[in-house]
Amino acid sequence: DGTLLQKPEYDNPLAEFLAQAALEAGEQQADEWESSVQLMTIHAAKGLEFPLVFMIGVEEGMFPSQRSQDDPLGLEEERRLAYVGVTRAEKQLMITFANRRRLHGTEIYPTPSRFIKELPQDCIDFVRLSGSVQPTMSGLSESSVKTALADDNQTGFEIGERVFHQKFGDGMVMGVEGSGEHARVQINFTHAGSKWLVMAYANLEKKG
Question: Domain extents for the chain?
Answer without folding.
Answer: 37-124, 153-208
